[in-house]
Design a protein that fits this description.
Elements: E1 4-7, E2 11-17, E3 20-28, H1 32-45, E4 51-58, E5 66-70, H2 80-88, E6 95-102, H3 109-127, E7 130-133, E8 136-143, H4 148-157, E9 161-167, E10 171-178, H5 182-193, E11 197-201
Antiparallel strand pairs: 1-7, 2-3, 3-6, 4-5, 4-6, 8-10, 8-11, 9-10
Helix pairs in contact: 2-3
Length: 203
């Protein structure tokens, strides 16, 4: 089964660079809305901060298009992009990093800012612990009674979990399984049972 790495717990690091405090935090976010909610919670908690720069990747980092970043008022390209670039090379998905800056009175210049924001994320990634996330698919499978045992055998072959069984005119299974195994299962059901078994994806 193939999946992707996601943060297993939040991480926070802090640096003081030429008088400015840079507090970088990472959090597991499974949706874009969750990423936005986390960012807003930091803004609400620390309204006096000069900037809350951020970057996130939601979903499989090797295939997702759900990624974004922001300089939050810093010079263009000095914060969000360096942060996102490190995330994109980390192989970790479902992650947001937010770097909160309290200005200390000394300007860092564009190169210094990029090093500060990117450096915070590098420190985060060094400390981050991850776990494997397997993307799941859900199916409803309806079959004739005499096919029941054989259907259950096929489900075991693809690591499917039976969430519910209903007995009526036919037997109905609600199952979840690794997304990568979905096509294998449906093709096998079609070959083995033909019209005796029907299925559909469910949310």
């Amino acid at each position: 089964m193939s999946g992707y790495s996601v943060p297993s717990s939040p991480v926070e690091v802090e640096e003081v660079i030429k008088g400015s405090r840079f507090i970088t935090r990472a959090e597991n976010v499974a949706t874009v809305d969750a990423a936005k909610d986390y960012l807003q919670s930091l803004r609400d908690a620390e309204p006096d901060a000069t900037h809350h720069c951020w970057a996130y990747i939601v979903g499989d980092p090797n295939s997702t298009t759900l990624l974004s970043c922001s300089d939050d008022g810093e010079p263009a390209g000095t914060a969000g992009k360096p942060m996102l670039n490190i995330l994109q090379h980390s192989g970790v998905g479902d992650i947001i990093v937010v770097c909160t800056r309290y200005y200390g009175g000394t300007k860092l210049g564009t190169g210094g800012l990029a090093r500060a924001y990117g450096g915070g994320v590098k420190l985060i990634m060094e400390q981050l612990t991850t776990t494997e996330k397997i993307e799941k698919a859900a199916l409803q499978i309806v079959g004739a009674y005499e096919c029941g045992k054989d259907i259950e055998h096929e489900l075991k072959q693809v690591d499917a979990t039976i969430e519910n069984i209903e007995y009526d005119a036919a037997v109905t299974y609600r199952v979840s399984l690794p997304l990568n195994n979905k096509q294998q299962l449906t093709e096998q059901l079609k070959v083995r049972f033909g019209e005796k078994v029907q299925w559909k994806s469910i949310q």
